[in-house]
């Protein structure tokens, strides 16, 4: 199929052109109309025509995360190996629900490798790939909820209210999952953070004590190994200890930051991550696997299987073996071949390459933090531990408006957040090609944006 080679060439051209293009640009009205308003065609178009349309209307308007000066949210450039194999996964197009085929079998290796990279103990079956951390968190918290006897039959009716503990800096997906699972927003406790935006463990203890005193049942504590706002790593060993004392499920959200453990200098901060009952990490973040690729790991594979296994007669598989199908461990039945992208990315980099990627981006973030601290017109808003830098431009009042202006100018891309209620800029460094000059451009663009806002 010639069109396939043409598409591959277009992908290669796109990737090599990215650094020369604006990081991001707004979509002009006519292209927006094409993207959002096309009528359903009565007759089909030739594949070459589709490629031409993609050239004209799609490739010119990327989100920006392939560019070395993209610092927004937590979105990495795609790994070359991941891009290379994506069409092959599509060409095979299996459902990785389970069964005896390469797609489902390779997921066993991909999950085990992720566990090994994160230093998490792995038993066969104790993990699966998901669409991202949000879905992985639903799987993890549903498994935690399964500790309530009879929950699959009786639901939570009649059960004492169950309490969930999440720090003020915990990702919104934790609250979303807890609400979705019927744990009730009212029973989600927001644990305060310390000066470095890590969960305040004495406060956690006090809140658990108060809930026990009130006759509630503490169920789970969700800690973070790399928060989205500042990249902070909670005191995981201390939280694990509290969880053990009170028989709580210990969940760790390492969606963004779990792989920071590969950097020897950071490793002490991760002590206790390996004690989690469930650990979420996103290969589509720091590792750069093309979207989508999330992962949830468990200490015990029996937990998610008890929570999710439901095999209708048409899906019985005598040959499934002891572990059964992946679809017995989560909500998805038909599952895409995510493992090929994850496997290829790790196989191409090796443990050393992944470690270098983490170290390099983390060093760049430290460099940015030092530049911010040294500049008279910026202030650091939090210690830069992993590869996120939270900071503010002075005067403070302009910070809320800065990201949109920087984005529109097209030379760099960053996003903002609220930290302790204050408008804050955050730059997340995930691109292995980001240079010191790129960091200088970012700071200059912020200054220029502030000037524009003032004018
Ligand atoms: C710390 C953290 N947890 C969870 C998530 C949600 O991940 P996903 O977007 O893959 O669902 C994010 C996303 O940025 C994150 O940074």
TrEMBL record:
<dbReference type="InterPro" id="IPR002129">
    <property type="entry name" value="PyrdxlP-dep_de-COase"/>
</dbReference>
<comment type="similarity">
    <text>Belongs to the group II decarboxylase family.</text>
</comment>
<protein>
    <submittedName>
        <fullName>Amino acid decarboxylase</fullName>
    </submittedName>
</protein>
<keyword id="KW-0663">Pyridoxal phosphate</keyword>
<keyword id="KW-0210">Decarboxylase</keyword>
<dbReference type="InterPro" id="IPR015424">
    <property type="entry name" value="PyrdxlP-dep_Trfase"/>
</dbReference>
<dbReference type="Pfam" id="PF00282">
    <property type="entry name" value="Pyridoxal_deC"/>
</dbReference>
<dbReference type="GO" id="GO:0006520">
    <property type="term" value="P:amino acid metabolic process"/>
</dbReference>
<feature type="modified residue" description="N6-(pyridoxal phosphate)lysine">
    <location>
        <position position="285"/>
    </location>
</feature>
<dbReference type="InterPro" id="IPR010977">
    <property type="entry name" value="Aromatic_deC"/>
</dbReference>
<dbReference type="InterPro" id="IPR021115">
    <property type="entry name" value="Pyridoxal-P_BS"/>
</dbReference>
<dbReference type="GO" id="GO:0019752">
    <property type="term" value="P:carboxylic acid metabolic process"/>
</dbReference>
<dbReference type="InterPro" id="IPR015421">
    <property type="entry name" value="PyrdxlP-dep_Trfase_major"/>
</dbReference>
<dbReference type="GO" id="GO:0030170">
    <property type="term" value="F:pyridoxal phosphate binding"/>
</dbReference>
<dbReference type="GO" id="GO:0004058">
    <property type="term" value="F:aromatic-L-amino-acid decarboxylase activity"/>
</dbReference>
<keyword id="KW-0456">Lyase</keyword>
